[in-house]
Amino acid sequence: MSLITTLARLEAVSTGRARPAATVRHRHLSERPLVFVPLTTAGEAGAPLGALVGTDRDAPRLLAVPQPRDRDLRFAFLAELADVVLPYIDGCAEAVEAAERSETDPETGKRVKVEVELCADAPQLIVPSRAGVDFVRLLGRSTRFRRTAEQDPEAPFPAPPRVPLLGRWLTHFGERARVPGSSLLPAMTDLLGRHWATGQSSLEDQHLGALLAWIDPPAGRSGAEAAREAELARDAGGQLRCPPAGPATDPAFDNKLLAPAIERYDRARTAFAAAQDGLEADERLGALTAAEREIRTLVESRTRPTWDAVWRGLDLLRALPEGVRVEERWTRDRWSFTGHRDRVLAGEPPQPRRDDAVTAANKLATREREQARLEAQEALDDPLVMAGRRLSGEAFAGEVTDVVMAYSESKRPSPRPLVTVRTDDRPHLGARTRVYRSLGGKPQAAEFVGYEDETDGHGADGHGRDGAEEGPAAVESTGVESAGVESAGAGQSSGGLLVLRIMDKMGRGREPEAGSVPEKGDRVCFTLFEHEPRGGAKLPDPEETPWTHGGPPDAEAAVREPADPVTEEDVL
Amino acid sequence: MDKATLAGALGSPSAFGQSQFALVRGNAFEARVKADGGTELLRLVHEKLDRSAEPPAAARVPDLSAAGHAGRAARTELALGEAVLAPGEWTLLDHPLLALDVAGSPAFLEPDAVVVHPDGSWTVVEIKSFPLLDGSADPAKVGAAARQAAVYVLALEEVATRLAAAPDVPGEAPRVRHRILLVCPKDFSNLPTASAVDVRKQRAVTARQLARLTRIEHIADALPEGTCFAPELPRERLTASVESVPASYAPECLSACELAFHCRDRSRAQDAVTTLGRPVRAELGGLTTVEDVLAAARGELGDPADPTVAALRRAAALRAEALAGAAAPTGARALAGVAGAARAEVAPCP
User: 3-class DSSP state for residue A97?
Assistant: First the structure.
């Protein structure tokens, strides 16, 4: 956490309200996101208890499993979930636009442009918290290897037809969520935490209710009070007023409300099964339906507050203007979505339990590259983020005080103008350090030449007027400057006048193109980090995995990935 | 002392509790692992930890029941002594009770099981109901289990030392293995699978912490005469009693201590920066309260030559500049160097 964020958090403590941690929105928000608020059963792996899901804020679809240990009921839940999620995904998969992608031609080995389809929009699944993202991944893992009766007539407990497909999609969402800056499966706590600094620790920010209480406290109350109430307040029955965002439920809810309700359901079901004649069965069916309805009501009572909180969070985020480069990152999400759509259509098997060496290395490389890209793009989009980079010496902003034309010493001299920048920032510059600024959205590189002595500079070009203008600013910052001088032991690191040599983006001619060189009086901001980070070296094809990494993957084994053994303890 | 009741009486009830679903499932799984005299459990110990030993065909499962905690602990020690005297055999201790000295008062611990190998060494077995999914489990939960097991290892080492000192036991102290066995359900099933976890690091950390703990008599000595923590006392008196014990709150406490919400309220009332996390405090040097930091950032307090104060003022100036710029969007853009930025070129990424 940078000192600037810390300061924002302290301000929040002092004012009782969250402070902005960003001036623009750094994540894409879909026009029509699918919100998913799941609940799980304590102690069971991948046994959902219920969920609210849907794209319409006023009409969520309620799914509930009256007995989570019953495999059939669990499958019914998953089938219903597939009925909501898959049509939503298909809706995005149909509209496509033409795009180009460079591919290696298998015959010539050259890179060629290929016309491909790119989905015009991608689905966006929003869950309340990070635990929700893990739960989506877990659901994906538990369902993608299931066999339907059609795939395998011998399967002991066949899954409903679309469930394995749902599992593959949820797995894809879960994997993509690990890529920094992606927006296919964001968690609301992460989204809000990125844009606001609250007066509590980042640990406590994981509680969606508390986080919202800080950002948008009820009228007349401080964020701290409201957050404490969201965390702890209980009603007369001992239940939390603001239920946890899940998927885990509050133990008091499990023990006092849910367990008795499930027991009543089990009893009603046993009684129904034991019914002797039609009349009795009818009567007992009524009791069973009532018991089931009771559990549905309970599930809704725990998920509805979270559902509303997620939409409130969306309202708050939508009020922020979108960052310029957010669209570009969303396009990457669209590529990722289109890629998986194509793999499903091509009939490829589900994602394996363990990635082979090349896939795993590729995933890691992608995440590292996207992390660097995200950090650079957020700084370029948002002056507040850039301020953090300037504070840490990774960027500097200032005014151009002088531009001197110079040329390279090659046969065809190209422009290499020398630009003097006055800055109060203290970047970590060494000899010939490359710095970059954004010029029309593209990075322009410059090289650090050296520091200009302030008194010499004024004497030499006689810009007495400039000196007078800069006077007050210099006086203001003396305190800071002198501290810098003392700690660094050299006048150089205290910023001041920097001379840079502009290296590119000035056209092909002898004279630079108009607007490509900063002019005197311009405000400029250079970064020491690259704007478009490059990836590492290309990895070998999977078929050429070296033996040190396990050798080429066994293609046959991947296709025949077996389903999980079934749990014997399930109630059936 | 029951800290949960105390927290409730202080008006900041703890949020801990266990769902009966998790309890039932955990007990069912443990019973399954230990069924048939621990056949499955011993098979896992043999396979994961001690392949060179004889496979366990039959194991001794001594009865450990006795009256009271002290009685059960003594019975456990006796059973361990007997097991050492029977080399070449596997012994399974189901729910033994161990005593460990914590800051001068004995604490009783109950591991899920302890296995004595044919070579006389001891292994702690921890049975958990979170799944081992495709060979990996939640690192936070595994870490917690390892820390828990490390305490058992320490307690067993004390027992081993005592046994070696006894006159009727020949040779050296029995070895307590530093690799414990963590037994979890496999994937989504209820079938047990296991993994050996090295707890040397956790053991060393716990041993150091136990050695450094302030002795409980010293804490008690420092309390004013008549301090009482009975939950039925009026809230003000109780609060005063609790506040006479020094505590240093950090957000990590929330997941570990029943009194954390009480300490958090107190820490907030004192305006301490640690309520935002330990790293924040480390970053701010000598400034420990929120208002001090903000005053220093505004330039009203502190020595400008102090690097922390200087950095704070720079941070505050940069933050104010960025926020002011954002209010007038065009200015902000010029500052960020994206003036007139066209939509960024999109590079396809498969």
Answer: strand
Q: Is the pLDDT of residue B348 over 80?
A: no
- Indicate the pairing of strand A125-126 with strand A34-40: parallel
In a domain, B88, yes or no: yes
Mean pLDDT of B24-35: 88
Beta carbons within 8 Å of B183's beta carbon, 6+ residues apart: B33, B41, B44, B125, B126, B127, B128, B192, B193, B194
Tell me the domain boundaries of chain A.
3-349, 395-527
* CB pair distance less than 8 Å for B276 and A201: yes
**Are residues A118 and B348, on separate chains, in Cβ contact within 8 Å?**
yes
The span from the first CA to the last CA of chain A, in angstroms, equals 51
Contact state of B307 with A201 under an 8 Å Cβ cutoff: no
Q: Which residue of A has its CA nearest to B307?
A: A483
What ipTM was predicted for this assembly? Answer: 0.83
Residue A144 sits at the chain B interface (C-beta within 8 Å):
no
- pLDDT mean over B11-22: 81
Give B-chain residues touching A238 at CB under 8 angstroms. none
Q: Which of B184, B262, B318, B343 to mutate to test the interface with A (most CBs of A within 10 A)?
A: B318
Mean pLDDT of B36-55: 85
Which A residues in the span 191-210 are in contact with B, Cβ-Cβ below 8 Å? Answer: 199-204
User: How many residues are given for chain A?
Assistant: 572
Arithmetic mean of pLDDT, B246-265: 86
- Looking at the domain assignment, is residue B302 inside a domain? no
Tally of domains within chain B: 1
- Mean of the pLDDT values across residues A111-133? 90
